[in-house]
Amino acid sequence: VPALTMLSGTGLAATNLISMSTQFGSQVYVAFVGGPTMFVNMEKSAFGNIQARLFPKFGMVGLSTGIISLASYHLAHKTPDLCTWILAGSLAVHLLNSFYIFPKVTQYMYLLRQAEKSEDQTDIGKHRMRFGMWHGVSNLINLGGMAANMFYLYTLAARFAGVW
Questions:
Q1: d(CA 162, CA 157)
Q2: How far apart are CA 149 and CA 65, in angstroms?
Q3: Residue 164 burial by CB count (10 A; 0-12/13-18/19+): exposed, middle or buried?
Q4: pTM for the complete prediction?
């Protein structure tokens, strides 16, 4: 991020657009292509295992691109505006997912597996409910982050349209 201060205005704009596009593309791919394809084509525990390993990496991509997007935008626009807050919100989504939600989803997935092995119906129901709840929260938060990113890109497009 310190190297961003050496970039020209065009360099900052390009860095911002590339990092935001990378983040948004990752979100779309995971939510609508990779995740659903693996879900319907993999055995349940293998799917869970790969997701438990991919989500931290997905979080790191979101965090790093979020930091770069916010920093590059801020360097070009010293006074915070709507886009600053959208980018901060998007970054907050990735922070929340990466450090709290993803670990909770994984924790309850493994607890559900243990309960299924023991065949304890009470534990199975309890952990299935918690896993489902946290997985749903994760999906909703990710969709919220995608909406923020679409709004940010739309806002930039509205600014660019006048000089396009």
A1: 9
A2: 12
A3: exposed
A4: 0.91
Helices (H) and strands (E) in the chain, counts: 6, 0
Spatial distance between the Cα atoms of 81 and 77, rounded to a whole number of angstroms = 8
| Residue 82 CA to its chain's centroid (Å) | 20
Under 8 Å CB-to-CB from 131, ≥6 apart: which residues?
Answer: 105, 108, 109, 111, 112
The answer to whether residues 80 and 153 touch, using CB atoms and an 8 Å cutoff, is no
In whole angstroms, give the CA distance from residue 43 to residue 142. 24
Spatial separation of the C-alpha atoms in residues 88 and 130, rounded to whole Å: 29
| Measured CA angle at 152 (ends 149, 157), to 5 deg | 125
82-96 helix and 121-161 helix, angle to the nearest 10 degrees? 160
Chain centre distance of CA 109: 19
100 to 92, 107, 138: CA distances (angstroms): 11, 11, 10
Measured in Å, how far apart are the chain's first and last C-alpha atoms? Answer: 29
Q: Tell me which residue of 35, 51, 20 sits closest to 151, measured CA to CA.
A: 20
Read off the pLDDT of residues 95-139 as tens digits, 9 standing for 90 and up: 999 999 999 999 999 999 999 999 999 999 999 999 999 999 999
